[in-house]
Amino acid sequence: MTGMDTAALTLLETGHTLVNPLPFPVGVFFLIPFVILMALLATVHLIGRTRPHS
Questions:
Q1: What are phi and psi of 41, to 5 degrees?
Q2: How many CB atoms lie within 10 A of CB 8?
Q3: In Å, how far are 9, 17, 18 from 37, measured between CA atoms?
Q4: Distance CA 22, CA 9 (A)
Q5: pTM, full prediction
Q6: Quick one: what percent of the chain has pLDDT higher than 70?
Q7: Which long-range contacts (CB under 8 A, 24 or more apart) does 42-51 make?
Protein backbone atom coordinates (compact mmCIF):
# COMPACT_ATOMS: atom_id res chain seq x y z
CA MET A 1 0.00 0.00 0.00
CA THR A 2 1.24 3.45 -0.81
CA GLY A 3 1.05 6.47 1.43
CA MET A 4 -1.80 7.82 -0.68
CA ASP A 5 -3.84 4.64 -0.14
CA THR A 6 -3.20 4.79 3.59
CA ALA A 7 -4.30 8.43 3.74
CA ALA A 8 -7.47 7.67 1.77
CA LEU A 9 -8.33 4.70 3.97
CA THR A 10 -7.75 6.75 7.12
CA LEU A 11 -10.08 9.47 5.82
CA LEU A 12 -12.77 6.93 4.97
CA GLU A 13 -12.50 5.22 8.35
CA THR A 14 -12.96 8.52 10.17
CA GLY A 15 -16.13 9.30 8.21
CA HIS A 16 -14.75 12.05 6.02
CA THR A 17 -15.55 12.01 2.34
CA LEU A 18 -12.68 11.90 -0.09
CA VAL A 19 -13.00 14.94 -2.34
CA ASN A 20 -11.13 14.95 -5.63
CA PRO A 21 -12.17 18.08 -7.55
CA LEU A 22 -11.96 17.80 -11.30
CA PRO A 23 -9.56 20.15 -13.07
CA PHE A 24 -12.35 21.06 -15.53
CA PRO A 25 -16.15 21.42 -15.49
CA VAL A 26 -18.40 18.35 -15.72
CA GLY A 27 -19.66 19.48 -19.13
CA VAL A 28 -16.28 18.61 -20.61
CA PHE A 29 -17.11 14.92 -20.09
CA PHE A 30 -19.93 15.45 -22.60
CA LEU A 31 -18.10 17.83 -24.92
CA ILE A 32 -14.95 15.77 -25.59
CA PRO A 33 -16.73 12.56 -26.72
CA PHE A 34 -19.23 14.66 -28.72
CA VAL A 35 -16.42 16.41 -30.62
CA ILE A 36 -14.61 13.10 -31.25
CA LEU A 37 -17.78 11.41 -32.53
CA MET A 38 -18.66 14.38 -34.76
CA ALA A 39 -15.15 14.32 -36.25
CA LEU A 40 -15.48 10.59 -36.95
CA LEU A 41 -18.91 11.12 -38.49
CA ALA A 42 -17.58 13.91 -40.72
CA THR A 43 -14.67 11.66 -41.80
CA VAL A 44 -16.99 8.80 -42.71
CA HIS A 45 -19.32 11.19 -44.53
CA LEU A 46 -16.43 12.72 -46.50
CA ILE A 47 -15.02 9.31 -47.46
CA GLY A 48 -18.46 8.06 -48.50
CA ARG A 49 -19.17 11.15 -50.55
CA THR A 50 -15.91 11.02 -52.50
CA ARG A 51 -16.05 7.28 -53.32
CA PRO A 52 -18.00 6.13 -56.34
CA HIS A 53 -21.11 4.06 -55.62
CA SER A 54 -21.57 0.87 -57.62
A1: -65, -45
A2: 14
A3: 38, 35, 33
A4: 20
A5: 0.53
A6: 65
A7: none
**Residue 30, CA distances (Å) to 22, 33, 35, 36 in order:** 14, 6, 9, 10
CA dihedral 45, 49, 50, 54 (to 10 degrees): 120
Of 34, 32, 14, residue with least CA distance to 22: 32
Rounded distance between C-alpha atoms, residue 45 and residue 38, angstroms? 10
Instruction: Please report, as a single letter, which amino acid is at residue 2.
Output: T
Q: Which residue has the higher pLDDT, 42 or 3?
A: 42
DSSP per residue, 13-38: HTT-------SS-TTHHHHHHHHHHH
